[in-house]
Amino acid sequence: MKKNLRKFTGFVIMLLFMGSTLLAAGKVVFTYAENQSEDYPTTQGAYKFAEIVKEKTNGRIEINVQAAAVLGDEKSVVEKMQFGAIHFSRVSLSPLSEFVPKLNVLQLPYLYRDAEHEWKVLEGSIGDDFMNSFAGSKLVALSWYDSGSRNFYNSKKEVKTLEDLKGMKIRVQESALMMGMIEALGANPTPMPYGEVYSSLQTGVVDAAENNWPSYESTGHYEVAKYFVLDEHTRVPELQLISESVWTSLSKEDQAIIKAAALESALYERKLWAEREKLSEDKVRKAGCIITPLSPEEKAKFQAAVKPLYEKFAKEYMDIINAIINTK
What we know:
Elements: H1 2-17, E1 28-33, H2 41-56, E2 61-66, H3 74-82, E3 88-92, H4 93-96, H5 115-122, H6 125-131, E4 139-145, E5 150-154, E6 169-172, H7 176-184, E7 188-191, H8 197-203, E8 208-211, H9 213-218, E9 227-234, E10 238-243, H10 244-249, H11 252-286, E11 290-293, H12 296-306, H13 308-314, H14 318-325
Parallel strand pairs: 1-2, 1-3, 6-7, 9-11
Antiparallel strand pairs: 3-10, 4-10, 5-8, 5-9
């Protein structure tokens, strides 16, 4: 029975590759999964990646981008990539860290001073080390994508100090690290699906949530939670990936083309992200939202409150954490 099941599984995987790597002599069509909408910066970055690859291979390699999560959520996409059913994707580190635990380091709250610090880390030797940490995952990392910084917003009051967050019910991702952050800040974590956040803010099921500028604006959360504090608690980069089974099927020349296209599309996506952040910020400011920056003194209190999480969630990586903190 088990032998027959293995044969059937192998046959299914073979069928999944029909029209892609098995047609190496002619045109090859690969699938790229993206969970955001067509106009989102990461999706546009994926389209740019596909465009560059097609151009550099004279149409021999075509990448079909499927947006709006039609191929599944990020976790299920990663699982499908592991056996080659999906060939490329752009994935947030939050679900990806379940497959490569070391990536939790890059999600630690208040790890970076600012965006410039983040990109010095990611584009340097530390970032390269993380990119090369996928052995055994059946995935290959290609390039970093930007997703800005995440900030708190709420429906109750302006947040100027750590004390102002005390006791708030804050929607958070279903992540032990993120829930631990909320507790360390003195608030109450309330994990729930992203699609339920608007109504939960509107009805008082939660007082607050957290996300980046484009998400705050595009979901309409600013309509029901007008107080936005620029605490920048996390900067969670995202990764463009290829299934290892696809990567190893490519020639060295095609691998070089794919890698170069991924890096070029990453710079394009980062530019689009900065533009989108500005548009979203302008929109919510015009809508009358209260935007509050934290003073350096107060931000230091937020950082001190979450410091124990570094030991709890990334104790074995404290040398890397210190190297990140000390990157100038």
